[in-house]
Amino acid sequence: MPALTHLGAKGEANMVDVGGKAETTRTAIAEGYVTMQPETLEMILAGDAKKGDVLGTARIAGIMAAKKTHELIPLCHPLLLTKVAVEIEPDHALPGLRVTALARVTGKTGVEMEALTAASVACLTIYDMAKAADRAMAISGIRLVEKTGGKSGDYKAGP
What we know:
Blueprint: E1 24-35, H1 38-46, H2 54-67, H3 69-72, E2 83-91, E3 96-107, H4 112-130, E4 138-148, E5 155-156
Antiparallel strand pairs: 1-3, 1-4, 2-3, 4-5
Helix pairs in contact: 2-4
């Protein structure tokens, strides 16, 4: 098991020193799901939610959240993100919405937390926008799907 990089010799929390790392292009993709009643999904897809455009608002919220990750997660570095994209697709088998977030940077540290934050906040926004119709919605499956670049190399999650 590799050592935890955010812990000092005595177990104290520390921000990792990335000063000596090479700048590389790093990309991360994260996903999450919001399950709901079929009627709630149809309401969202029809654009009939009382609060407005659920999908558009969730997409923007996810992008904004990625840009603020360092303000939300205490030991994350502020990054000059070069790309953030949030896609939200209906999945009638859930039933619900599948959220995928991509974050990219050319820098000295990875963007996994930015992608995970974008996916999480997009899911939370979907819940907030539609909770009046369906308080039983559930957010699940938040995970890193893929990452490329950096010293640790590439990663791809299994099914």
